[in-house]
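step: validate -> pass
step: tokenize input -> pass
step: predict -> running
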Amino acid sequence: MQKKLVLQVISSPICGGAEVLVRELGQKIKSRDFDSEVVYFNNISNSNIKLHDNESSLSTGDRNPFTIFKLRKLIKNRLKTYQKIIIHVHLTYPFFYVPVATLFLNVVLLFTEHNTSNKRRGIPFFKYVEHIFYSRYKKICCISKGVEASLVEWLSNKLNSRLVVINNGAILYTLKERSIFEKPKIISIGSLTKKKNFKTTIKAISYIKDEIESYLIIGEGAERESLNKLIKENGLEKKVILSGWFDQVEKYLHEADIQLIPSLWEGFGLVAVEGMSTGIFIIASEVDGLKEVLGQNNPSVKLVSDIENPEKWAFEIQQNIDFIRKNTKEIAISARKQSEYFSIEKMITAYNTLYHNI
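step: predict -> pass
step: emit ->
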């Protein structure tokens, strides 16, 4: 029997939770029935990322329309080898480009929606445009119930039957037995973009800078310059560190005492699961998707409702320092238990089942 191919398509292998998960899917969705391949739009030659044998880059950039032609050529080439190709698409530009690149080709399209919101949903016209593109996908995978609810509201009833919830999964790190700290080390992980809302937590640190040891932000993105300016304006050069992006964040989570996740919206919250798996205390935005993953009754978590108010974030950090010192063991146990609901193995199994069913 001729094998089928599962082809993951995403803009880049770096900078966020979706990218990390796609790389994991690319390596672990391998069975006697499927071959696996991952294609990226962006040129990654200037990064420190090493591609696996089944990964390749079109080197066109995610916004370049020429990507459509290169992608179509690649898919037509694969159709010479494979009887059936399932193309699993992730994030914005692949969402729009793949349906165009595959017109009249014998392939099956899946899309994973990674967010509860985006800028396009503020423009009514886009509802009709996106309906056309969503209709090209046989199944639309939602990474949380919060994402599903937002899509039900955005899409027409005709497409709701195509929605399926497959929770994101994370690689669970080792549980860290943390010692009592004098001043906490604080960490955030995520792209330096408006959505991640790091300007708010940086301002929050300016109010309590003498009460913390450091605030490390691991990530890269378009807001680096403005965040650096904010750090200097508030005299935080010795407290707040923009480290850039690292593939391996486990050791940095182990070294931290508090994790901040100030996102304006979040489809799931991969970094939340990674953090909880190490037993860290988390202060996070009370937004759909994220609060679903963290658990609203989890003693190792504090949710912030006024998410763009730096004074509120500073208050919650201050209020929880003593609680963390006195309850380190209990926090670690409850955090780890919550993280285990969202392991990478459960996600891989769910996607593998979906590929077989379609």
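step: describe -> The first strand starts at residue 4 and ends at 10.
step: cleanup -> pass
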